[in-house]
Amino acid sequence: MEIKFSKNWNNKLDNHFFTTIRGHTVGRLNEWRSFLGRTIDIKLKGKGLIGLAVLKSVEFVRLKDIDRRLVMLDTGMSYGQAINLFYELDEIMPHDNVIILMFERLSNASNI
Q1: What is the pTM of this model?
Q2: What tens digit of pLDDT does each residue of 14-29 get?
Q3: Coil, strand or helix: which one is 62?
Q4: All domains of the chain, ordered by start, with CATH?
């Protein structure tokens, strides 16, 4: 399994623990839940495989109910800018459901 990032938002992929907020579908939620506790390849656009991480948690929530601080830390943007970004990338609106994934990084690609 792999997770792809278009950009290293807020340099979060350099941290030991990081989150990502993704659009929700029942299929996506069930797939991520099935990978809980497993090692996932981390891929970054333009760089390919950049490391490995263990999926530590999968949370289903409405975007408008997420703590605004988490949204800002996840993206490195103001809350309003982040909401606009979510709409542009995944067409997620504040009333929509999202999946919050939390990972623990195991290694960099150079160590694999």
Answers
A1: 0.89
A2: 999 999 999 888 888 9
A3: strand
A4: 2-107 (3.10.400.10)
